[in-house]
Amino acid sequence: MTIIEAVPNVSEGRCERVIQALVDAVTNVPGAYLLDCSSDPSHNRSVLTLVGDGTGLTNAILRLFAIAIKEIDLRTHRGEHPRIGAVDVVPFIPIQEATTAECMELARNLGFAVADRFGVPVYLYEDAAILADRSALEEIRRGQFEGLVDKMQTAGWSPDFGGPLPHLTAGATALGARGPLIAFNINLRTEDVEVAQQISRLVRARSGGLPAVKAIGVSLNHRGLVQVSVNLTDFKQTPLHRVFNLVQREADKLGVEVENSEIVGLVPEDALMATAAQSLRLNGFTPRQVLEARLRHSLTLPSSCPALPTLQKPDGEP
What we know:
It is globular, with a radius of gyration of 19 Å.
C-alpha cells in the first residue's frame, strides 16, 4: 500500500472558525486522511498532517487552497512565522512504498494545478526544485509576502508556475518533496526575544551550529515567553536531545530557564526512542524492546489511518 505524507502549513492560527473550515475541507476526502492539526496564535499558523495516495492528497490540498484563499488575506495577516502565502508551504514525504521521485512529480503536478485554478504563483523547493540554487525554503521565503512583488521581478525569481505577480491576498506558495522533518520548539522563561534569536544563531547549521538544524527565535506574546523554533531535517544526524541540551546550556549561560518544549504535528517513533534511550542512558536498548513495535514486527499488524481529525485549540504552532 502506497502512503505519502503531506504537511500543508497555512497562515491562520487564531480564528477557530477558519481553522475548522480548513480541517473540514480535507476531511472525508477519498484517499486522504487527516491525522493532526496544530495551531499557534503567536505564529498565526496551522500545520496539518495528512497521509494517503497521490490522487487523494492532491484533491484534499486543492480543497484546502480554495478555503484558504477565500478566508485569508495576507495584507492584514500578522504573525511571528515567516510566510509568503495563505497556504505557505506544502511538502510531500514518501512514507511507505513511495519514492522521492513520486513526491517530486506530485508537487510539480499540484503546482501547475494551483497556479492554473487559483492564480497563485508556485515555487518548487527541496527535492522538487527545478533550479538548484533556490531549493532552500528559507531563500524562497526571504522578504516574505510584503516583498513578493519586488522579488518576483528580480532576475532568477520568477515562479515555476503562474504569472509574474503574487495573488493579491493569497501571495504565493512553495511546494516540495523532502524527507521527514521534526518541528521542535523550545520555550524560554523570558520576554526578551533577543535571547531566543541569539541561541538560534548558535544552534542552526547555517551559522555553524548543529547539522540538519534550522532555527529562528520568536516571541510568544500570548504566553509571556520566547521560543527557539527548530526544524530538524535529519534526526539521525542530530537527535532531539542534542538540540535540547545545547539550547538549555546556552540559556543557562544567559541566566534564562527553559519552560518546556513541544512537537508541532507528528514525529517519527524512532526519533523519540533514540532520545529516550540516550536521556535514560539505557544499556543495549533496541527498538525491538518497545512493545508496540515488537507487536507490529511479529504479528505484521496492518496499519490504520484515522479518518477523524485531531484539532488542537490555539493555546491561549510552526
